[in-house]
Amino acid sequence: MDSPSDLFRQQPSQMCPFGLYASPRGSTPTAPLYPGGSPPNYPLISPLLHSNSASQRWGGYQHRQSFFPGPPLNNKMDEGVDEEVEDMFGARELGRGVNTMSQLIPGCTRKVSDPEPWNQDVRREKRLRMDNGIRGEGEMDREREGARRDLPRSAREEKRMEEEEEERKRKGRREGRQRQRQELKLQLEETRGRLLELQRKVWRVYGEQQTEEEQKGGEERGRINMEEVAEIFSDEERDDPVVCSGESRHLRASSRGEDRDRNGSEIFPDGTLDEDPELDGGEVWFGCSLVRGEWESPAGGQKFAQALKKELANAVARVIDRVVRLYAETDPSPPKVLLHETPSRRTFVSNPDDKQRPSRAASHVEQEEMEALPLVAKRPQEKRTPLPQGVQRNPLLPQPNPTLPPLPQAPVPALLPTRNKDPFLPSYPPKPPPFPLPLLHYTMQHLFARSLSNLPLHKDCLSSEPFLDFRSHAPSFPPLPLLSQLDPPLSDRGRDGGIRGGGGGADGGDSTLYLGAGSSQEGLSPCHLKKAKLMFFYTRYPSSNTLKTYFPDVKFNRCVTSQLIKWFSNFREFFYIQMERFARQAAREGLPAARDGALRLGRDSELYRILNMHYNKSNDYQVPDRFLEVSELALREFFSAIQSGRDADPCWKKSIYKIICKLDSPVPDSFRLPGCPLDAHRMA
DNA sequence: TTTCAACCTG
DNA sequence: CAGGTTGAAA
Question: Which of A92, A431, A576, A583 is the most exposed place for a label (fewest CB within 10 A)?
Fold first, then answer.
């Protein structure tokens, strides 16, 4: 299928410029001059349909334009260039059989010594007309009459000819503008047609309802589609009343099929474009702070372009989103949600030689402790669920190799966690598939590539179990992610991008699809979160440079950086809370053994389990010894501070923080790669 | 004044 | 986990 942009690019020369660069007299031109008199004959739509921003495309187009000779000047002449030419030549040759600009330009020599005084008047008048472009013709004529009275007869004749020429030119311009608008309208129509086509395709591929609709007949289906689109656009207005509501309102109306005419007048609310169009200003256009009439100025043109681009993108996104959401709603076999969570074993060993403590810690947590340690400490236990009988892990089944691309079929093995290789760790069931599924930003290309080829989406995190193929978790679910949040500006996506969609991020949102790994990504994904947590084993206080080094696949901006920093801040918070908690516990229990290493942090201890659970949930990474050392040191520091009563000082933790922050160790090189690092030995 | 990290809260 | 607040350091 030809992309819309391709189609539109086929007739660049037919695209009439909007006079984007015509600036009023006296104003500083914002656009470059075109020395050869060749006007920038910009297609307006084509750049809009590129993924790059319109503003970028303008620049690129300017370059390309230099290779095109441009259309004949006499009827394609842009008003702005018209003015340019006049500026260049100062005055025109009038009354010498030179009637069109095309005749004027080649070999035109400036008449420097034209002494006739009326020439001044002509120019003054023209300038006036430019300045008061919206003034009525009659008024202008009256002005001309007044001027004419003062002119000698011969001059008056020439003046008349000049006016005729002016009239012709004006007509030409008007026609050009009309053509141009027709083009626009046609293109918009075409785009909308494509949207409908797209919607039908999606229905055809996925919709079970499609069969029903086929029975109802094509006409009915068409009607439904139109209603669907109408709803989508009305959604748009509801969802986003601020942005471009004017246009969306109109699109909605048009999509109902009311007053549809092929010349596309429905595209614009009041039909302004069909009439001639001296756009009278004042009304905000497109809700995008573009004032009607302003769009023929450079800034207005860009605004208009951006508004169009935005609207088109939104419309496409909404159609896809809506259709897919509808499909998800009607899906007969939604993924099962694990409803019955039962508390699992509550015995935790913080020290092998201290067997009576665990039950106490778990069952009767002292009130003080509860106050000091709110939800954080308890949560892991509450969330545990026993393995359902039928889903017992099979340690004999091979674990998926993360270094390989996902197999086309990965049903059972992918369900099996790589965790629990550590004999000291309790066995937990795999997470149920997150539902609703993560809402991801998606592109049409992804959608179609996926729908047509039924291949798994590309992911940048193939390295561990939680990042395995969707279908492994929810085989009955259609291979389509729910679409949503296509509207917020890209810059805002970073924050949400995948994390929130994951429904608690680390807690199970891991089974998430990602955008392509090759290029850097705007936001942070659950995969990045996982990686950050693993990095915490090495560095508690990473600098932003460190972060940039170890997240090469992330496009860093202020928002992303601060999010990453916030993550580590949260990690630290959790870490210190646990340290304090266990230190207090040890202190409470007297712990005479504290003197000779009873406060040791072994891999079999409860504290270790909690930390591992938090930073290495899937347990597919070997917790480095160094981290245990650091944790142990922190634990001891907390313990000694508590025992010595230093914790009465409100700032008592600061000294501990100071110690810990010096204990960062270098992050392994394996973290420099995109995706999640993995321990080789864990895969064996 | 700005930046950063801890702290608090949801 | 994220947003907001606060206090200290740069």
Answer: A576
Assign 3-class secondary structure to A347-409. CCCCCCCCCCHHHHHHHCCCHHHHHHCCHHHHHHHHHCCCCCHHHCCCCCCCCCCCCCCCCCC
Instruction: Decide if domain A527-682 falls under CATH 3.30.470.30.
Output: no
Please write the tens of the pLDDT for every residue from A543-588.
988 998 999 988 888 889 999 999 999 999 999 999 999 999 888 8
Round and report the angstrom distance from CA (A473) to C1' (B1).
52
Taking the domains of chain A in order of start, what are their residue ranges?
Answer: 527-682
In chain A, which residues from 534 to 573 place their CB closer than 7 Å to nucleic acid strand C?
563, 566-567, 570-571, 573
- pLDDT tens, position by position, A669-681: 999 988 877 764 5
Q: Are A134 and A280 in contact (CB under 8 A)?
A: yes
Nucleotide nearest A571, from its CA to each C1': C1
Instruction: Among all protein residues, pick the one whose CA is nearest to the C1' atom of B9.
Output: A374
CB-based contact A298:A307 (threshold 8 Å):
no
Q: How far in angstroms lies nucleotide C5's C1' from the CA of residue A184? A: 52
Listed as ranges, the nucleotides of chain C within 7 A of a protein C-beta are 1-3
Q: Which two tokens stand for residue A31?
A: 């656009």
